[in-house]
Amino acid sequence: AIDRGYRRADGGGVIRKSRHDVRMSILSGHGLALGAALLWSVNFALLKVARRELDPLALAAGRFTVAGTLIVLLWLFFKRPRWRSFGLRGWVVVTTMAVVVGLVQVMLAYAVKGTSAGLIGLLIATQSLHVPWMAKLILGERFNWRKGLALGVAFAGVSIPILFESRLAYVALIFPLIIAFCAVVGSLNTVLPRLVHQHVDSFDLTTVMLAMAAILYLPILLGGSIAEYRVMSFQGWAAMLWLGSAGHLGAFLLWYAAL
Question: Which of 207, 238, 243, 257 is the most exposed place for a label (fewest CB within 10 A)?
């Protein structure tokens, strides 16, 4: 790609980039992805705090409402909404992502009650093992030895601590299985955005996805969860607000920008 240059979107020729520019672009993408991972790592501990006072559906409804409200306000304030740019494929992808994210968050909130935050973080990290074969299947990406080496390192990094996790023998098997399933389904959130990123930027994609997820949970929020929010402690509110803002909205913005 460096040698061929980059063709302009308006068809006006080829834009040449130096190797330094390409390397800086790659490093900035990796930095954004690392920032998202750091934000997500805090979520697992705070999920334990919020689950002491809320059931999984109420927690998911609350955090999606916070994230959806914040990003829609930012979207309307800083940008002009561009609904037509999505197209049919874009709407199918973003709807699938909203359903996937909503399902994963409810299942994680349920499983976190029965296991440790550290074990959840290790199991959910197995997403990295599923992304390459999904990218090969859905996007047609090549699978080379570098990706194979990365998979081996990721597998060792995830499996070795789990083998020495002392609580694993005392945890009900259903909870690790739920989290492992969430890792498989959640890996779609890395693959699917690549289908529409040529036509939709990361901010629009994140906005519509989180707004649709919030709308899906609106009946639950209005149905009976409000009573649970009224009796929440300060710690419970702080945990849910973090999960909905920085831990959810901020992490997804960084992740999709990196993609």
Answer: 238
